[in-house]
Design brief:
The protein is of the alpha/beta class and 272 residues long. The protein has 2 domains: 114 residues, Pantoate--beta-alanine Ligase, Chain: A,domain 2, CATH 3.30.1300; 139 residues, EpsJ-like (Ribonucleotide Reductase Protein R1, domain 1), CATH 1.10.40. It contains 6 helices and 9 strands; from the N terminus they run αβββαααββααββββ. The strands form 3 sheets. The chain has a 5-stranded antiparallel sheet with strand order 1-2-7-8-9. Strands 3-4 form a two-stranded parallel ribbon. Helix 2 crosses helix 3.
């Protein structure tokens, strides 16, 4: 009986300690999201166009106990292709986004029919663009990128290759001050790998302050006008990810925030 009593007390004490620690980590993680929001707002207000599209901000020993660490990660979502924009609000296909997405799929060696599979998943009509694409389709936009894993015809390995280059947030404009080579190439069949790399090298020295500044990059003199209305030079949708650690316990909060003027608007929040 004594052994059993000690065992029960130890388990209960451990459970209470773990619960208290998780609550503490959760509060710190939420504070980290707020800190990321403040960082972003100050940065956006600064008018600085040269910034990393992903930044890690470690905060070691935040509690002063020598045990608790926090890592804040901020990433620009507007450097990616918004696949929700592949279908217009009136239900028609956005041909420019469709063509861009197919080019991106080709660069990543993923079958181009994935673009039509996603259209079938999103649009509200029953017209099938891909074999079996309308089967159990959602008929609504994606609420998260990992929703792709639920769609018949999209393989897990396709999702892994594709997820770094796509988003469902933002207004669909691509931030050319941070977009990856493949995303830049997807914008037009005229943008070769060499031109995309030339753009990246140029912006590292002189970031673009207007999208029209693209015409100063050799090779874009006759291309840039066709990209009007599809590109931007600054992000407005950002991922803020916070991980808090203490011993073997961890809390992980992920949020997507957009800015409506000076007001932050949260589009997504997940805590595990």
């Amino acid at each position: 009986m004594v052994v059993e009593f000690v065992y029960i007390v130890r388990n209960d004490t451990t459970s209470i300690y773990n619960w208290s620690t998780r609550e503490s980590l959760s509060i710190m993680a939420e504070s980290g999201i707020k800190a990321g929001e403040i960082f972003l707002k100050k940065f956006i207000d600064s008018g600085n166009y040269l910034y990393p599209c992903k930044i890690d901000i470690p905060v070691p020993d935040i509690a002063g106990d020598g045990e608790t660490d926090v890592l804040i990660t901020i990433a620009d979502e507007d450097i990616k292709l918004n696949i929700n924009k592949i279908v217009n609000q009136n239900g028609t296909v956005n041909q420019e986004v469709h063509d861009s997405f197919k080019r991106l799929l080709s660069f990543l060696e993923i079958k181009e029919s994935v673009a039509d599979i996603i259209i079938d998943w999103i649009d509200e009509n029953n017209e099938e663009r891909a074999g079996g694409g309308e089967e159990n389709s959602k008929n609504a936009v994606l609420y998260s990128v990992d929703e792709l894993l639920k769609i018949k015809g999209i393989m897990p390995e396709d999702y892994v290759r594709l997820s770094p280059y796509i988003t469902i947030y933002g207004d669909g404009l691509i931030n050319i001050n941070g977009a990856d080579k493949f995303v830049l190439m997807s914008l037009s069949e005229d943008i070769t790998e060499e031109l995309a790399e030339r753009l990246i090298a140029y912006r590292e020295l002189t970031p673009f302050k207007t999208w029209q500044g693209l015409n100063r990059v050799a090779g874009f003199e006759t291309i840039y006008t066709s990209l009007g209305g599809r590109i931007t030079v600054k992000g407005n949708a950002f991922l803020i990810e916070v991980k808090t650690y203490r011993e073997d316990l961890i809390r992980h909060v992920t949020a997507i925030v957009m800015f409506n003027g000076n007001k932050p608007v949260y589009k997504y929040w997940k805590e595990v």
